[in-house]
Design a protein that fits this description.
Layout (H helix, E strand, L loop, with lengths): L5 E5 L6 H10 L3 E6 L2 H14 L6 E5 L5 H13 L6 E4 L23 H28 L3 E6 L28 H20 L5 E8 L8 H8 L14 H8 L10 E4 L7
Parallel strand pairs: 1-2, 1-4, 2-3, 4-5, 5-6, 6-7
Length: about 270
């Protein structure tokens, strides 16, 4: 058990952020959650506190991780509390929901604005860098640590846009998975490789978890279309990544750095 060890998770109020928190708390870590959404963070924090009752501390901060000043302020507050970060999970990302697209935005290259691209990359790429840069300083004090970057199966392949229409015909697709998500998730793997060599002498490891599609009330046609493309013939459950996060955070992966752990039901093999 990793008592007196602390893990920080960005995007802590998202789909998988709370699951990562539960996974790491199960093996003894105290938890720090960062999220830009104060209302959702409060809700998720309330649920988490019930689930991890009597198993360590859990702290939360409302934070825009693309703002270095905000992240530094949180870092200083944690240091003041002697709450040094041993594990960082760079989980935050802007992941556009296809069904929420407006009429004047389809995700196509032709109507994809530079402002939208900058906004998406500011979280997934710049935010990942800022948090890694700042919380690696905590790990240096602790004489080691683990940075876990969360990519996606779309970080190693291009999205098959055909799945976004019932017919699976590309000419019928109206809402496309945008390029910003693809750029961001590919970039995360590059950041991992760079940091793994840069921080190795400080005993700080950096690896990437590459998850597949996770069930979250998607349209039935989309679930059906994607399932056909997964050898294990199902989408991931939120809990399917628990052991992977525990493995990457602990000494079980002490001789692993700069690598991508792909858990996607086999989807990227085809």
């Amino acid at each position: 058990m990793y008592k007196n060890k602390n893990a920080l998770i960005t995007g802590g109020a998202g789909l998988l952020g709370p699951e990562h928190a539960i996974a790491l708390n199960e093996v003894g870590f105290n938890i720090v959650l960062l999220d830009i959404d104060p209302i959702n963070l409060k809700k998720k924090l309330k649920i988490l506190k019930k689930k991890i009752k009597n198993r360590g501390k859990i702290l939360s901060y409302v934070c825009d991780i693309a703002d270095e000043k905000q992240v530094k302020k949180i870092s200083l507050d944690l240091i003041k509390k002697k709450f040094f970060i041993d594990v960082l999970v760079n989980n935050a990302e802007i992941n556009p929901k296809m069904k929420s697209y407006k009429k004047n935005y389809t995700g196509r290259i032709e109507d994809y604005s530079i402002d939208r691209l900058k906004k998406e990359l500011s979280v997934g790429v710049i935010g990942t860098f800022i948090c890694s840069k700042i919380f690696a300083e905590h790990m240096k004090i602790r004489r080691g640590g683990s940075i876990i970057n969360i990519s996606s199966d779309l970080g190693i392949t291009a999205p098959d846009q055909r799945v976004y229409h019932k017919s699976e015909l590309i000419d019928n697709v109206r809402n496309f998975k945008p390029i910003g998500y693809s750029i961001s998730k590919h970039a995360v793997i590059g950041i991992t490789k760079y940091l793994s060599t840069y921080f190795a002498k400080k005993n700080i490891r950096c690896n990437t978890l590459v998850p597949g599609a996770v069930l979250n009330n998607q349209p039935s046609f989309l679930i059906k279309n994607v399932k056909k493309r997964i050898p294990l013939n199902r989408w991931a459950k939120k809990t399917d990544y628990k052991k992977a996060i525990q493995f990457l955070a602990t000494d079980d992966s002490c001789y692993m750095t700069g690598q991508s752990l792909i858990i996607d039901g086999g989807r990227t093999i085809w």
